[in-house]
UniProtKB/TrEMBL annotation:
This is Sulfotransferase. The keyword Transmembrane applies. Keywords: Carbohydrate metabolism, Glycoprotein, Golgi apparatus, Membrane, Signal-anchor, Transferase, Transmembrane, Transmembrane helix. One of its GO terms (cellular component) is Golgi membrane. It is found in: Golgi apparatus membrane.
Length: 312
C-alpha cells in the first residue's frame, strides 16, 4: 500500500519529478521481493508495522506471515493489533511464495517512468490506472489536509514547505498527470505497453463492483473466488464511514452513496474551481460539467457518461 510514502516522507525537499527514480526503484525491488529497499527509509527496528498501512495487505494479515488468523481476508483492526511485530525482512521471504504481487501507488505522475519495468520480462508488469471524478477527489482530500500537507509541498516543489491545497493547485497537477498518462497509454503507446494497461474509473467500479472486478481480474489473468466475491459485496454495501479518520481506510461502506456524497457537501464555488483546474480530466474521463448548485444537488441527474477503454 503506497510504499513511495516512505520515499516522499524521507526526502521532502525534492520534487515529485526528481523522486520518480527513487520511487520506481522501490517498486521494482518490491516486485522482486527485495524488501531491503526499505532500509534506506525506515530507521526503527524495521518491523512490518513500520510499513505504511501494512494492515491493508491480506498477505501480511494471514498465514504464514501471521498465525493469529486462518488464511482468509480478516478485519484490519484486529490485524493491526496482532500481526505487526515480525521483521520486514521476513516479508521478502513470504513474498517469494506468492504468484502475483500487487502494489497500490499514487506517487507516479508520468507513465514513462515505468517503461523500464514494463520492458522487463521477469516482472510481467500490468497497470490498472484508477481515476475518479476530480470533484469527489477534491472533497476527499479536504478531509485530511494535515496528512497531505507534506505531499502538497513535494508536488508543488516548495523545497520542504508544507501547505494546504486551498486553491486546488495540487489537484490540478494530479488531474493533468492522469490525463497525460491516459493519453500516452491510449494513443501513443509503445509496443511493450500493449495489453499491459487498463483504465478503471472509480464510479464504474462502485456502480457494478463484481462485473468491473471480474474485468480487472481477467486483465491480469486471474479468477475470482467465491469468498472474494462475497468480500467485494460486503465491502461495497456497508453503512460506513462512521468517522472522519476513516477517510483513507478500507472499511465496509455503501460505495455508490459514498461516490456521490461530494455532491451534497461541496460548495458549488469549489466545484466550479475544480472544474476549472481539472477541465481536461473531466473531458477525457467523461465526467459531465455542472453549471449550477441546483444541478449539482439534483441527484436524479447523472453526470457520469459512458466510457470505453481505447487501448486494445
Amino acid at each position: 500500500m503506497e510504499p513511495a510514502w516512505h520515499v516522499w516522507r524521507s526526502l521532502p525537499h525534492y520534487s515529485a519529478h526528481v523522486l520518480h527514480m527513487s520511487v520506481r526503484d522501490m517498486v521494482r525491488s518490491i516486485f522482486k521481493c527485495d524488501m531491503s529497499v526499505f532500509d534506506t527509509y525506515i530507521e526503527s527496528d524495521k518491523n512490518v508495522s513500520d510499513l505504511f498501512q501494512w494492515y491493508s495487505s491480506r498477505a501480511l494479515c494471514s498465514l504464514p506471515a501471521c498465525d493469529a488468523f486462518s488464511p482468509y481476508i480478516i478485519n484490519q483492526t484486529a490485524c493491526r493489533k496482532l500481526c505487526g511485530d515480525y521483521l520486514i525482512s521476513k516479508v521478502g521471504e513470504l513474498c517469494d511464495k506468492y504468484s502475483h504481487i500487487v502494489v497500490k501507488e499514487v506517487r507516479f505522475f508520468d507513465i514513462t517512468v515505468l517503461y523500464p519495468l514494463l520492458k522487463d520480462p521477469s516482472l510481467n508488469l500490468k497497470i490498472l490506472h484508477l481515476v475518479r471524478d476530480p470533484r469527489a477527489v477534491g472533497k476527499s482530500r479536504e478531509q485530511a489536509p494535515r496528512a497531505l500537507a507534506g505531499d502538497n509541498g513535494i508536488v508543488l516543489n516548495t523545497n520542504g514547505t508544507k501547505l494546504n491545497d486551498t486553491n486546488y493547485e495540487v489537484l490540478g497537477k494530479i488531474c493533468s498527470s492522469h490525463v497525460k498518462m491516459y493519453r500516452t497509454a491510449s494513443y501513443k503507446a509503445p509496443p511493450f505497453l500493449k495489453d499491459k494497461y487498463m483504465l478503471v474509473r472509480y464510479e464504474d467500479l462502485v456502480r457494478n463492483p463484481l462485473s468491473k472486478v471480474e474485468e480487472m481480474y481477467k486483465f491480469v489473468n486471474l479468477k475470482l473466488t467465491d469468498q472474494l466475491t462475497q468480500w467485494i459485496h460486503n465491502i461495497t454495501h456497508g453503512e460506513g464511514p462512521r468517522k472522519r479518520s476513516e477517510a483513507f481506510e478500507t472499511t465496509s461502506r455503501n460505495a455508490l452513496n459514498i461516490s456521490e456524497l461530494w455532491r451534497t457537501i461541496l460548495p458549488f464555488q469549489k466545484v466550479s474551481r475544480i472544474q476549472e483546474v481539472c477541465k481536461d480530466a473531466l473531458t477525457s474521463f467523461m465526467y459531465h460539467f455542472m453549471n449550477s448548485e441546483a444541478e449539482q444537488k439534483d441527484m436524479s441527474k447523472d453526470f457520469i457518461l459512458p466510457m470505453k477503454n481505447k487501448l486494445k
